Amino acid sequence: MSHYVTRAGLQVAGELADFVERQLLPGLSLGADAFWQGFASLLADLAPENRRLLAVRDQMQARIDAWLTARRGQGWDNAAWQDFLREIGYLLPEGPEFSVATTPSDPEIASVAGAQLVVPVMNARFALNAANARWGSLYDALYGTDALPGAPAGKGYDAVRGAQAVAWAAGFLDQAVPLATGSHAEVTEYVVQDGALVATLGAGSTGLADPSALAGMSGDGAQRSILLRHNGLHIELVFDPSHPVGAASRSGLRDVVLESALTAIQDCEDSVAAVDAADKVLAYANWLGLMKGDLTESFDKGGKVMTRRLNPDRSFATPDGSTLTLPGRAVLLVRNVGHLMTTDAVLLDGQEVPEGLMDAMVTVTAALHDLQKTDGPRNSRSGSVYVVKPKMHGPDEAAFADRTYAMVERLLGLPFGTVKLGLMDEERRTSANLRECIRALKDRIVFINTGFLDRTGDEIHTVMQAGPVLPKAEIRTAPWLSAYEDGNVDAGLATGMRGKGQIGKGMWAKPDAMAEMLTAKIGHPQSGATTAWVPSPTAATLHATHYHLLDVAARQADLATRARASLDALMTPPLMGRRNLSAEQIAYELDLNCQSILGYVVRWVDQGVGCSKVPDIDDVALMEDRATLRISAQFLANWLMHGLITETQLDESLRRMAVAVDRQNAGDPAYCPMAPGYDGPAFQAARDLIVQGATQPSGYTEPLLHAWRRVVKAA
């Protein structure tokens, strides 16, 4: 239980007050009294509206539940469904055409297409790794993953495996930055002469097919590098004949380094387990360290203490003799929490305050440290603060976010539009009214992003009373999903986001399946998305190759003329109708989802791990966070409601899968087994998420997870 101190009429947890006054504010012109008075006024003005908007969600869902219940078994009538949604204000009319008017932001956000990382900001090591993933070794990414067939032999350097990586990289260079004649695999020497790249092949020489692709050089002698540019992204050829890889290369090429994660989201939401003031302070402190540039993390690796810190910028001499300085780090966005949750880190009139309002005030204040820098490494060279706002339902909630950050700007003395917002298009009412949501944020929006998992969770919860939904894998091929993904891009292009902000796609969930990712994830730039989420720095480097192979700007120009995605398809829920499943199919789906839920929840509740690689029922590691949990819990809640499974079957599956999850975690000394008691907080939380899933607000998992995590922390 927190000890509270009084600040501007607020009861503030002691650890939060200490953080604000001893870490957050020193170095800023903003005093403690001004901060707390401003925060108190923010809460007084906006907390009532926050509560009203949440009440609207509940009222709409109650009316939807009643309408669907009354028509259950009558067959689906999509026209009547849409008429009803318009009647209750769920589907809104679209206004006249418009274009977003966001003031200039950094090119990594506005105009250059590339990979994006999402990491839990509570983990300093992960946070730093993501920030430093701006540049990555293509050779390493290929050598150490299944992107290449087979695996390295032995413990030392495997020259055969290395040759595979070198050959793959040469083929990539031939596509991204081809030579006028011949292949990069044949080059025996690269030099820059008279401002041009000259490559020697056999007895002759050649240049780049596009001479303007040469961007710069660094170093001299044998250890040097040549910088190339393609589709706005940089490729660094690193030479070192004394290195084993360079020694085996006829040109002395030791590595091909790619500009990889252009941007990274430091997450305060789905990938963290922050349930009290102490947790929030840890998240805020790491974000502050990133904004100040002084965050470090030390850890033991192989008996040696290693320290991570932010990478410096990189400088190159350009062909015309000037200096080119490129950021050494990804441009960072911070994902605040949504409108739903409250926090006891601050009490107003004895009541918890909206956590999203606290996030807005604290994370933007932390970013003032970056904004006041005038030279050297900075997060935003355009003087922007980038905030991603998740889980908003419709235009009114988007307008509330705009009002929130405008007020934060006024309180902190920032020009209007300094805070740029990312809109997560992951709730049904938002995707159905996406253009109007963008309109509500048109002066500060820089990012829209689809999220299949949360969006599916909300889809199931919205139509919970209509009937059983399709098996989870089949939902991915249902008509609404392609309409959702296409409609997001259509809305971004139609509202003028090209050159103003990112149109993004979701996470690659298999962090160890890089060969599959290389085949599949090029679909994201092909869809017109300028960014897409990846689970690791290595994945960012491999995904970066896709943005060289495909010109997203040209692809968007083609897509801008296509027919708009179908609203009828978007509004058609993935219901089974009169279809029946076999007992074996139902049993498999039950075990599959119970295992997934338990594998994630046991780490969240018992250890406070909000995002991790969780083995699935077949021991395949998958990236899991609260979004994956939401879809699995809502899916089983739906089948339980409609009698495809019984509570007895559910309990039997949970017990079986608890044994399997215990086995999968047997090597973790901090792990607390769920079997044979099946009565610990984690097991109970997993069961509650299913049994109570139909009554949870919008099907969100946070209320139950937070309650059970607090039980563990209190013990």
UniProtKB/TrEMBL annotation:
<dbReference type="GO" id="GO:0006099">
    <property type="term" value="P:tricarboxylic acid cycle"/>
</dbReference>
<comment type="pathway">
    <text>Carbohydrate metabolism; glyoxylate cycle; (S)-malate from isocitrate: step 2/2.</text>
</comment>
<feature type="binding site">
    <location>
        <position position="454"/>
    </location>
    <ligand>
        <name>Mg(2+)</name>
    </ligand>
</feature>
<feature type="binding site">
    <location>
        <begin position="125"/>
        <end position="126"/>
    </location>
    <ligand>
        <name>acetyl-CoA</name>
    </ligand>
</feature>
<keyword id="KW-0816">Tricarboxylic acid cycle</keyword>
<keyword id="KW-0808">Transferase</keyword>
<feature type="active site" description="Proton acceptor">
    <location>
        <position position="335"/>
    </location>
</feature>
<feature type="binding site">
    <location>
        <position position="118"/>
    </location>
    <ligand>
        <name>acetyl-CoA</name>
    </ligand>
</feature>
<dbReference type="InterPro" id="IPR048355">
    <property type="entry name" value="MS_C"/>
</dbReference>
<dbReference type="GO" id="GO:0005829">
    <property type="term" value="C:cytosol"/>
</dbReference>
<feature type="binding site">
    <location>
        <position position="426"/>
    </location>
    <ligand>
        <name>Mg(2+)</name>
    </ligand>
</feature>
<dbReference type="InterPro" id="IPR046363">
    <property type="entry name" value="MS_N_TIM-barrel_dom"/>
</dbReference>
<comment type="function">
    <text>Involved in the glycolate utilization. Catalyzes the condensation and subsequent hydrolysis of acetyl-coenzyme A (acetyl-CoA) and glyoxylate to form malate and CoA.</text>
</comment>
<dbReference type="InterPro" id="IPR048356">
    <property type="entry name" value="MS_N"/>
</dbReference>
<keyword id="KW-0460">Magnesium</keyword>
<dbReference type="InterPro" id="IPR001465">
    <property type="entry name" value="Malate_synthase_TIM"/>
</dbReference>
<dbReference type="InterPro" id="IPR048357">
    <property type="entry name" value="MSG_insertion"/>
</dbReference>
<keyword id="KW-0963">Cytoplasm</keyword>
<dbReference type="InterPro" id="IPR011076">
    <property type="entry name" value="Malate_synth_sf"/>
</dbReference>
<feature type="domain" description="Malate synthase TIM barrel">
    <location>
        <begin position="331"/>
        <end position="565"/>
    </location>
</feature>
<feature type="domain" description="Malate synthase C-terminal">
    <location>
        <begin position="586"/>
        <end position="696"/>
    </location>
</feature>
<dbReference type="Pfam" id="PF20658">
    <property type="entry name" value="MSG_insertion"/>
</dbReference>
<feature type="active site" description="Proton donor">
    <location>
        <position position="625"/>
    </location>
</feature>
<keyword id="KW-0329">Glyoxylate bypass</keyword>
<dbReference type="GO" id="GO:0000287">
    <property type="term" value="F:magnesium ion binding"/>
</dbReference>
<keyword id="KW-0558">Oxidation</keyword>
<comment type="similarity">
    <text>Belongs to the malate synthase family. GlcB subfamily.</text>
</comment>
<dbReference type="InterPro" id="IPR044856">
    <property type="entry name" value="Malate_synth_C_sf"/>
</dbReference>
<feature type="binding site">
    <location>
        <position position="335"/>
    </location>
    <ligand>
        <name>glyoxylate</name>
    </ligand>
</feature>
<feature type="modified residue" description="Cysteine sulfenic acid (-SOH)">
    <location>
        <position position="611"/>
    </location>
</feature>
<dbReference type="GO" id="GO:0006097">
    <property type="term" value="P:glyoxylate cycle"/>
</dbReference>
<feature type="binding site">
    <location>
        <position position="535"/>
    </location>
    <ligand>
        <name>acetyl-CoA</name>
    </ligand>
</feature>
<comment type="subunit">
    <text>Monomer.</text>
</comment>
<feature type="domain" description="Malate synthase N-terminal">
    <location>
        <begin position="16"/>
        <end position="68"/>
    </location>
</feature>
<keyword id="KW-0479">Metal-binding</keyword>
<dbReference type="Pfam" id="PF20659">
    <property type="entry name" value="MS_C"/>
</dbReference>
<feature type="binding site">
    <location>
        <begin position="451"/>
        <end position="454"/>
    </location>
    <ligand>
        <name>glyoxylate</name>
    </ligand>
</feature>
<feature type="binding site">
    <location>
        <position position="308"/>
    </location>
    <ligand>
        <name>acetyl-CoA</name>
    </ligand>
</feature>
<dbReference type="Pfam" id="PF20656">
    <property type="entry name" value="MS_N"/>
</dbReference>
<dbReference type="Pfam" id="PF01274">
    <property type="entry name" value="MS_TIM-barrel"/>
</dbReference>
<feature type="binding site">
    <location>
        <position position="426"/>
    </location>
    <ligand>
        <name>glyoxylate</name>
    </ligand>
</feature>
<dbReference type="InterPro" id="IPR006253">
    <property type="entry name" value="Malate_synthG"/>
</dbReference>
